[in-house]
Specification:
10 strands, 6-stranded antiparallel β-sheet, 285 residues, 4-stranded antiparallel β-sheet, 19% strand
Amino acid sequence: MSGSFPAAQTCRYIHTPSAFARQHLLYIQEAGRLKSRDRHISRRSHLDSYLFFIVLSGKGTVTIRENRWTLGPGDHVFLDCRTPYSHESSEEEPWELLWVHFHGNAMDGYASYFVGHQLPPVFHPDAPSPFQSLLEQILTLEQARAGSRELLENELLHRLATGLLTYQGSAPSREDSLTAKLQEIRLYLDEHYASRLSLDELAGQFYISKYHMSREFKKAFGITVGGYVTSQRITKAKEMLRFTDLQIEAIARSCGIDDNSYFNKVFQKAEGITAREYRRKWRGQ
């Protein structure tokens, strides 16, 4: 971000992460506070970075590909900077921003979740914003230049990313009746994971299109219906492996998988070890 602004009202911290931070942490690339005195434009693309900023005052716009948003005080913006974007401060009411550019190996997963759940890049939480507090803490750490700041900033950035993915806003959520129905379906699967249920039967039972149910379940919970059932079966199997003396074949049947060979294959894919190895390791044998 650049422009003409009084130094007294602006701070910018550019950080070069350590090799440890690059490999293991979410890390700051740049963070700051900008009080613009006149209009300015920034355009970028194919930048290995994620940008989050808050409009503290003034007005401006942000454009992501072909989509354009008009921004004002309290608006929050999250951008994957690999995608072409630009942001522009108003000439009549130049804005004041609080921002952070950051990256890390985990961010690609966060970004995929963000896109997959069709979360909006621009949102406006009620005041006071918990996101603003996180950014101000990051600026404080960068200003202090403490030796432990990368670890502390990593924790703050994970909280920021998690907040971005879980923020719902004060407005009624999309299709409240659908949300309630999806919760009912998930609770039903929690109780009947060991049963043989086809998507057609499940959709019919809850009076919803099979394709609509599958698509919306994945959006809501980040996993397919089939994947969720498998996860519940593996979780129950792990519990019985640890706390019962049942044979593995009996555990598989109890979890709804009659074919022991298939059970072992599914279990190893989920846990990276066989069911027998899992039992031995967690029992300390």
